[in-house]
Write a structure and sequence with these properties.
Elements lengths: L1 E3 L5 E3 L1 E7 L5 H12 L4 E7 L8 H8 L15 H6 E6 L17 E2 L10 H22 L1
Parallel strand pairs: 3-4, 3-5, 5-6
Antiparallel strand pairs: 1-2
């Protein structure tokens, strides 16, 4: 997305990438929270090294509970363009070290957040709240 700058010239938004292995839970929630809390000159993207093709239904449910609709989100692969155009990249945490995004993207910020995959909704809510807190802290450091 591009916003208009001084004298009508377009100014690209600063892109932040959130990455994990499957792009079905943590990175999706981080992307959604970042869109909610970040200044308007920023945008978020997320991707995975082995995307599942769908977003975890419990992650969607947990986010709905806090007023964020992720029902239209899709799991997607990290692309060369995402890496090239992102000012900062955040790795949500790796359970599978062989497919860890840090092996693809240098200078990635590590959050080490537990994967909500196969967890009950109560645990997914805890992870959601942890991600929200980390995103708020991250956004406050941008300003």
């Amino acid at each position: 997305m591009i916003e208009m700058g001084l004298f009508g010239k377009s100014k690209p938004k600063t892109r932040i990438m959130f990455a994990c292995v499957e792009n079905s839970g943590r990175s999706q929630m981080a992307e959604a929270f970042f869109r909610k809390y970040a200044p308007k000159e920023y945008e978020a993207v997320s991707g995975g090294t082995e995307p599942k093709g769908y977003v975890n239904p419990l992650a969607i449910q947990a986010m709905n509970e806090v007023g964020i609709d992720m029902s239209k989100h899709e799991a997607k692969a990290i692309t060369e363009e995402m890496i090239r155009t992102s000012k900062k990249a955040v790795n949500m945490g790796c359970m599978d070290k062989g497919m860890c995004p840090t092996s693809m993207v240098p200078k990635m910020i590590e959050w080490n957040i537990e994967d909500p995959k196969d967890k009950p909704i109560e645990k997914v809510r805890e992870i959601r709240d942890q991600i929200e807190q980390k995103v708020k802290e991250f956004v406050s450091e941008l300003e």
